[in-house]
Specification:
Residues 6-285 form the Carbohydrate kinase PfkB domain. Helix content is 34%, strand content 25%. The chain is α/β, with parallel strands linked by helices.
């Protein structure tokens, strides 16, 4: 089973306006959508769609936390979060006049004791793998991630910003930076696939058994104990890239959970991401047959 941890989840509010926003007047929206957000939550949603056992956990509070819990229940995603005093953050995207405006909250201020409760919650589920994804709320530092990685026999993966990757000191089964995060974590140039592989190898030497890097139009690479694998992207009409990185990671984790090779794991991630980028919005696409799609993904050893 793969348990996901989202330390700083959010309610993602998307508000649409027909006209550009104007100051000192009332701007009336024509549409609004609310979704449960956060990297770990997203991964649990994809895993559920792939019939891979998962539990979502993390920190939630207030009326926004209640909304996230209700959304996960409605999607039949097992969830058991630790309650904190302050409300879960509300992140707003305003779409107006062809432009988009993002207004993100920092999140609730969290006491370090919440990490103790979260570690106990994780241990209760005895997962084989744990994914820690997304940003940290005020009051917590990167040692809160290290604490999870070193508190049990589970294999821990992380999907966090490059600067945070640089500060982690525990041993990890996997990390999943994108190209920019890979550059920030290693302070190296990552313009070519070969440079990305070199940077991922350097990151692996810091305690990450596998490094999966999403490279956009250049596909993805996985650097692990058996060397480096590169996967080309599938030829699909790209409609929206939001969620592609989470989808890639979900496919990789699901495949590794099945005991498959690095090549198959990376191909699975690319196949899942291809389904996601082929549709607009943040919803989870139909992933039936996605394990068969990976046969079309071209992989090669580097």
């Amino acid at each position: 089973m793969i348990l996901t941890v989202t330390y700083n989840p959010a309610v993602d509010q998307t508000v649409t306006f027909d006209e550009p926003l104007a100051s000192e007047t009332v701007n009336r929206a024509t549409d609004a959508q609310f979704d449960a957000g956060g990297k770990g939550i997203n991964v649990s949603q994809f895993l559920t769609a792939m019939d891979t056992a998962t539990v979502a956990t993390g920190l939630l509070g207030g009326f926004t936390g209640t909304f996230v819990t209700e959304q996960l229940e409605a999607a039949d995603i097992p969830a058991e979060f630790v309650t904190v005093d302050e409300p879960t953050r509300l992140n707003t995207t305003a779409l107006a006049g062809g432009a988009d405006y993002k207004l993100n909250q920092a999140g609730p201020t969290v006491d370090a004791s919440a990490v103790d409760d979260l570690v106990d919650r994780i241990a209760d589920h005895e997962p084989a793998r744990v994914l820690v994804g997304g940003s940290l709320p005020p009051g917590l530092e990167s040692d809160a991630i290290d604490r999870i990685a070193s508190s049990g026999p589970w294999r821990t993966a992380v999907d966090v910003e490059g600067e945070t990757l640089r500060t982690l000191s525990a041993d990890y089964a996997l990390c999943k930076p994108n190209r920019e995060e890979l550059a920030a974590a290693t302070e190296t140039t990552v313009e070519t696939v070969e440079e990305c592989v070199a940077a991922a190898s350097a990151l692996g030497e810091r305690g990450f058994e596998r490094v999966v890097a999403s490279l956009g139009a250049d596909g993805a690479v996985l650097v692990g104990p058996d060397g480096a694998v590169h996967a080309e992207p599938l030829a699909v009409d790209v409609v929206d890239t939001v969620g592609a990185g989470d989808a890639l990671l979900s496919g990789v984790l699901a495949s590794l959970e099945r005991g498959e090779s690095d090549e198959l794991a990376l191909a699975t991630g690319v196949a899942v991401a291809s389904r996601v980028v082929s549709q607009a919005g943040t919803g989870v696409p139909d992933l039936d047959g996605v394990f068969e799609d990976r046969s079309a993904v071209e992989t090669r050893r580097l």
